[in-house]
Specification:
Elements lengths: L17 H15 L8 H9 L2 E6 L5 E6 L2 H12 L7 E7 L12 E2 L5 E3 L10 H6 L4 E2 L2 E3 L2 E2 L5 E6 L3
Parallel strand pairs: 6-7
Antiparallel strand pairs: 1-2, 1-9, 3-4, 3-5, 3-8
Length: 163
């Protein structure tokens, strides 16, 4: 018969922390990333040619639009919308505190160079679309440190035409 002492901790299943570490690494990389240097006119023009716009929503059912310029991320977004994949369905990136013509009526938008997709992330970057608008003046401090926004309930709805 096994004797149990008062000092033994109850057995607990080992938690998988690898996805959380990966999410933290992604957030850290975004926070440390510097804005892109000015591009030569031909490179900037090429980026504009490959831009795609996607509407997304969250638990509030409010809609916002993001701009993607990376061909692999554009394809991932299209695969999410078509149902070809369900991996990394949520959006993460650094916001810019000014309006963009494609993301009306909101006073902010994602920096296209920082947008990525994720499965899980830390709570510190989670907020809904309208909450970010209501607290935009606080973004970058304790609220959305580094201006990194990762709405946990975000999901792409559809691709939209360029403005």
């Amino acid at each position: 018969m096994a004797v149990e002492t008062a000092h033994q901790a109850p057995e607990m299943p080992m938690r998988r922390i690898t996805p959380k570490i990966a999410a933290l690494a992604a957030i850290t990389m975004l926070a440390l990333a510097t804005p892109a240097q000015a591009q030569p006119a031909d490179t900037a023009h090429h980026a504009a040619d490959t831009a795609a716009y996607f509407e997304f929503t969250d638990i509030t059912q409010e809609k916002a639009v993001l701009k993607l310029t990376d061909p692999a991320k554009i394809q991932h977004a299209r695969d999410l919308i078509s149902g070809a994949t369900t991996d990394e369905p949520h959006v993460i990136g650094r916001i810019i505190k000014r309006p963009a013509p494609y993301n009306r009526p909101w006073s902010y938008h994602y920096n296209p160079d920082t947008i990525d997709f994720f499965d899980q992330a830390f709570e510190v970057c989670d907020a809904t679309v309208p909450y970010v608008e209501e607290h935009l003046d606080e973004a970058g401090g304790a609220f959305l440190p580094g201006l990194i926004w990762c709405p946990w309930t975000s999901r792409l709805v559809r691709e939209v035409p360029a403005p």
